[in-house]
Structures are given as C-alpha cells and as structure tokens.
Request: fold
Amino acid sequence: MRAERTEQFASAKAASQEVEGVLAAVISEAHAQDVLRSAFIGIIDHGFDELTVRQLGILFLVRDEKHAISDIAEKLSISISSASRSCTTLCTKKLTRSEPNGHKRMISLSPKGEAMIGRAMTTIIQKI
Reply:
C-alpha cells in the first residue's frame, strides 16, 4: 500500500512538473507574440512600411558595420543583382550610403537610416 502511494505521488509530481512546463511555454509564446506584434507596429510607426522585406533586412544587416553588396547577397540568400537594386533604392531614400572600396561597393547606414533603426529598436526593446 505504501509503495503504491509513493508511486502515485511520484506520478502526480511528474504530471505537475509537466503542466508547469507547458504553462511556461504558453506564457513564453504569448510574450514572444506580443514582442513580434510590437516590433511590427514599431517598424510601421517609424516609416519602414515603405520598404520591402529585403530592404528592411539590408538595413538591419548593415546597422553595425559596412558590408559589400556581394556579402549582403550571400547573407540574405539573394542574387547580387537583387542586392544591388535594393541597396540603390535605399541609397536613393537616403537610408544608406554607398562607398567604393576597390572593386566593391560598401554599404552602411546613413544618419537618417541610423535614426530610423534606432527609433524602431527602442520601441521593440521597450516591449521586451
């Protein structure tokens, strides 16, 4: 009888821990959805709604350091010509700068692009 109760207790404890794990995952998922929702709202609020997903990816990629067009293409898994067209559009919108470096064009954020990314990141971080 005692062994049976011990086994039932162990089984109940394991079930309780499993339920706690599921609840934690649900809460984490809900928080992640809220953060993503806030991120999209922050992006739209700060003028990113006029950009394509590819252009947005380039902005976030070059926010910390300069990248060559070929590196951007490789990291985003797009063709060099697509990366070049997107970077040209971003330069036209004055969100990035293009500087020659030998045979390569190096892309970096412009002050306008830095301000836009900074405002969006602040909005996102506030929600985390």
